Amino acid sequence: MNNYLAAEARNHRVCGGLYRLYHVGIFVLPLSFALIYLSLFVNYIDAFYGTVGFTIANPMLNDGRAVLFVAGLTIIFVISVIKLVEYKSEFLYKYRWLIGMTVALLAVAFKISGSSLGMWSIMLPENADTPFWGIPRSLRSDEFSVGTLFQLSQSHNGYAPISEILRGDLTDVRMVYGAACWSVITLFRPVLWGYLLFGFEFGLAFAWSAKLCLMVLVSFDCAFLIIKSKPLSFLFSCLLCFSPLIQWWGTGEVILYGQALVLLLDRALFTQKRNIRIIALAAIAWLCGCYIMLMYPAWMVPFFFIFALMGVFRTTEYCQTLKSNNQHSVLAWSLIDTFVLVSCLLISAGLIFLSFFQSSEAMTSVMNTVYPGARFETGGSGLPELFSYAISLFYAFDSPLVSNECEIATILCFFPLGTLASLLCFIKRRDWQLFLLTALQLFFLAFAFIGFPSFLSRMTLMYNVPVLRLLFPIGYLELLLFLISVEKAKESQGNNSSIGYLSIILIIGLILSSAFQIFILLSAKYLVARMLYLLMFILFCLFSCLSFRSYILGKKCTGLFVAFAICFGVIPGLCINPVQIGAAPITDTNLEALVNQFVEESDYSDKWVVDGSWTVANLCAAYGAPVINSTNAYPDLARWNSIDENNENECAYNRYAHVIANVFAPSTSFNSTQDDLFTVNLTEDDLRQLNVKYVMSSRDLTEFSSDKLQIRQLGSANGFVLYELTY
Question: Residue 572: its pLDDT value, please?
């Protein structure tokens, strides 16, 4: 008997030792990934600037110390998440909104954003300022050279709905430009409220940091309604909000508003207080307006199907609760509730109609442009990017073989493992909610890979959706389905459930998926030369399989699984956009002082032109100068028709366009070089006809002076010279 007990004790010690070794292995693998990744990224920053990665804000940190510093923070973060998820999950869950809002307020107070406006430190000579961490992305030109500059321009316009600065003409900024303004439409664009309430720099931080914090919180709560697991919902939220797709696009309002609608519907239905329901219903009506005013149907349409389906789930569960013995736990729907909801929806609809009516001229102009004009898609072009979801983790420091990382960035979703596992769950358990989500996913996949007839595309509104834009909704659904399957596999452990083999199937599927990703990595020749990338990827795949197995088997591995899955998912996302403090690269320049000096001395009738650069044209407009070749979000046909004989070149300028203007050309000409860009060559007579008084140029223009035209140099800044034209 004693020998038997001794043998049992030895076996227990051996198993305990192997289990601890297993834990250590799971800890070391992702930590190795993080250290290698951060080392490569810091070296990339060093090569980009030619100096240390932490830039001027932290000059004491050299390359090696920067890696060690970030590695130390990573270890602290990982251990903290493990402890909090394992032992303090109720604390985090209870105070999640307080914690999230505190982080958002601090980020706004310190003017922290992810803007790439630091590119202006590179684009403008003698303009030295860089982000606190990371690098600005030239690919984000629509952000730092257009959208952010439009918001700064509005601060010189008193945030009026009509600007005389942009395009150098009366310009409606409410609908097409999407700029902050004191108008009805801004009620439905809460991301812009910070500009109106706190000014440009704090508003920029609000639009970035507060939005990201809200997305994380809302995504967690919405996922918890479906997944029913706090750790996995937290994982979903982080992998979604810090995914390469959202970080490269710098967006996310579509999931913010859509998921918030689902949460408010749940709140309105499952409450025992009438006043709470009324507030929730009013908020639902307002958020419907926010969703509509996104004005990007390529994402609005597919996500509408997703969130509408989630709303059906909550409504069905509410009806089942009323019919069951728990009917007193919720408030029954009444005629008053219907009246409140309909009234609020009508008010929102009325305000939206008013917004469209006020901007009808601009909207009509956009609809009649050559680009973007009308769109009609039928799908069927395929979506191979779904099968290379992990490769985009490396785009933070290595460009792909295409010119635009945004177009091929994805969510780490393990496609198609979630779809296949959810189908298996349905076959064995007949979970109708899981079946409907999977059916919607198959609907999207059919559109992407097979295509729809024209009538079906029109009926389902999918004609608004280019196939590449389906990467977002398909990735969102796939991640959700995968984590639902993980939770069901965990529930099936230790019993005779009919889906007891689901965990084994998921683990085998994950191994095969990892092997396929490594094959894709080896096929991507631009990465093969960097064997460290391959090593990182193998570590990632090993960890995915091991930690997944440990989570399925339980034994207090939840914190380890979530912490390191977040480590893999969040660190690459955080390395995409820089950590920018303030907006000094555009608000503290010599060029701003020069432009402001002469803008204050003239009125908007004196037009400006920036010679040879559409980006600097937008920057001058941001400083308050009425620049005629600032980006035309909708065309100024009257202006361009006036110098285009017989309107022969209208096809070139009747579009959303960045405008490169070349002054003192021998003849007038228009040339559209790409969908959103055209070049106009302006003669002296054109400048006179367009009433151009100021020209900003990097060239010497005084040689074009004549008896009929005097050109006087007014000053220079950041490599550009300002000239005054006197006719």
Answer: 87
β-strand pairing of 669-674 with 677-682: antiparallel
- Domain end, chosen from 361, 396, 422, is at 361
350 domain residue, yes or no: yes
Q: What is the DSSP string of 183-210?
A: SGGGGG-GGGHHHHHH-HHHHHHIIIII
In this prediction, residue 19 carries a pLDDT of: 57
- CA distances 322 to 224, 265, 317, 340, Å, are 22, 16, 9, 21
Domain boundary among 312, 339, 361: 361
Distance CA 673, CA 629 (A): 16
**Structural domain for 296, as ranges:** 252-361
Beta-strand ranges (E) seen in 95-205 are: 112-113, 162-163, 171-172
**Total number of domains in the chain:** 2
Query: pLDDT value at position 257?
Result: 97
Paired with 163 in beta bridges are 171
Dig out the tokens for 467 from the structure.
């196939």
Q: Is the dihedral of CA 688, 606, 703, 629 positive or negative?
A: negative
Instruction: Give the helix, strand, coil percentages of the chain, each rounded to 5.
Output: 65, 10, 25
**pLDDT lower than 50: segments of the chain:** 4-5, 7-14, 51-62, 528
596 and 131 in contact (C-beta within 8 Å)?
no
Cβ neighbour number for residue 112 with a 10 Å cutoff:
19
> What are the two backbone dihedrals, phi and then psi, of residue 402, each rounded to the nearest 5 degrees?
-115, 170
Mapped onto helix, strand or coil, the DSSP state of residue 678 is: strand
> Is 594 within a domain?
yes
- pLDDT 10s digits, 456-469: 999 999 999 999 99
Cβ atoms of 53 and 42 within 8 Å: the answer is: yes
In the structure encoding, which two tokens stand for residue 157, read together?
């316009």
Tokens of 587: 């608000």
Tens of pLDDT along 141-166? 999 999 999 999 999 999 999 999 99
**Does residue 714 belong to any structural domain of this protein?**
yes
Question: Can you tell me the distance from the alpha carbon of 272 to that of 122, in angstroms, rounded to the nearest whole number?
Answer: 58
Flag whether 15 is in a domain: no
CA 176 to chain centroid: 19
Contact between 205 and 197 (Cβ < 8 Å): no
d(C-alpha 563, C-alpha 555), whole Å: 16
Report the alpha-carbon distance of residue 577 to residue 451 in Å, rounded: 35
pLDDT of residue 662: 95
CB atoms within 10 A of CB 39: 18
